[in-house]
Amino acid sequence: MVKYASFLGCQIPMRIPSIEIASKKVFEKIGLEAVDLQGYSCCPEPVISRLLDKTAWLATSARNLVLAEELGLDLMTLCNGCYETLLEANEILKHEPEERQRVNDILKTYGREYKGLVNVKHAVEVLYEDVGPEKIKEHVIKPMKIRVAMHYGCHLYREPNGGDITRKPNMMKELTGLTGVEIVDYGLERLCCGYPSMQADEEFSLKQRLLPKLKNIKEAGADAVVLTCPACTIQFEIGQILLREHGIHYNIPCINLMELLALSFGIPSKDLHLEFHRGPTSQLAEKIEGGYKCLK
Amino acid sequence: MLKTSKAQQKVLLYDPKRCTGCRYCEIACAFYHFKVIDFEKAHLHIEFDERKVEFEAIYCQHCDEPVCVAACPNDAITKDEETGWVKINPSICIGCKTCTIVCPLSVPWFNEAFHVSMKCDFCDGDPQCAKFCSPQAIRVATREEAWEFNKKNYLEVLT
What we know:
The complex is a heterodimer of chains A (296) and B (159). Helix content of chain A is 50%, strand content 10%. Chain A has 14 helices and 8 strands. Chain A has helices at residues 11-14, 17-30, 48-52, 54-71, 80-95, 97-108, 123-131, 133-137, 167-177, 202-219, 230-243, 257-264, 269-272, 281-289, and strands at 2-7, 32-36, 75-77, 120-122, 147-150, 182-183, 224-227, 254-256. In chain A, β7 (224-227), α11 and β8 (254-256) form a beta-alpha-beta unit. The longest helix of chain A has 18 residues, at 54-71. The radius of gyration of chain A is 19 Å and the shape is globular. The model of chain A has no long low-confidence stretch (mean pLDDT 96). Chain B has a single domain (8-152), classed as 2-Layer Sandwich (Alpha-Beta Plaits). Chain B has 159 residues and is of the alpha+beta class. Chain B starts with 9 loop residues before the first strand and ends with a helix. Chain B is globular. Chain A binds chain B through residues 46-48, 50-51, 84, 154-155, 157-159, 162, 165, 187-188, 190-192, 196-197, 199-201, 204, 208-209, 212, and chain B through 18-24, 26-28, 31-32, 37-39, 48, 50, 53, 128, 132, 134-136, 139.
């Protein structure tokens, strides 16, 4: 059986717990044992917190990695941001002895030591590489007859040593396709959703990043956007609410890959608590379950 | 005699085919230099053409023969021949903005608060923009590699 330590991060359990619920149900079905990492903290966030205090960022991340080491399991993340932080911190700590020493001096105070024993993987990689598309497809009993647009998220493009940035997005696309959806191309898949720039310039973020994507997604005839990143999901959902203040109206539902897989596995949407989304995700699921044919 | 040949000097190299337009590079740059999250205080900028679906970055090439150095009337801009980095000395800059006009890429910018011109200083060898770029669209490369890349992706495309 495939077994990982599961790192949920902050945004999923606190803001969109339906992703956590769906992932647990999906993992159980496909025989992936995901052990909750007890006592974990924020990953921490990969850019601003690292800019503010690199040592605090690295030490906090190292502590999370040590928790996985203590379980003797590699670490799996559901969130793109957590993925980049933990992957980067692990790379730094494994390859830069001075940083490792500095961090271990801090961890020693708490009776812990980073040894560099675990690897970090995104859930997309685990599903694709360790479980495999064929095995996942066996569990799809309710093909999703909808059109979807993909949004992969910037941090999913992170590859150590400048590798192929499309590697994980391609895996995500293939996994999405297993659910029976029709994936529509809208031309702006790689464009950032605008979440990072919200902190610097809200109007730019909404109008120059999110809006072009929403326009193209709607024009492409997608019924929903498929994502893995909770931060991007929040940007898509809250962004559509904020755009109303500018007289711009969109109402495109977001669905996490885990939620989409769960629905295609026949898990009722009411069990997933999709109402945690700040958009019409539960309405989309109800339409699918009611036999509503979104496909034209 | 230079310890490092010009071809092996470190420069920034941007590949638009990897960029997502997240502007984390700008956030990292502005925060490193000014401790604020403000795109206008970044020494590099990412542009996105929605119609053509193309990304481009405006960033300092630390030119072999920098026009900004030649044009500065007060010798406030110098090129370190060993590292290749082109820097503005704010204590010598008179705020005439000549560099902001002559640079073919419009990299130097005038800081209204400080009344001096500013530009990329390569973060003393550890460029923050490259460090925080998730898809590694902007990264540190040798001048030789950057030249080959730019020749292939810009000059040869145009000719």
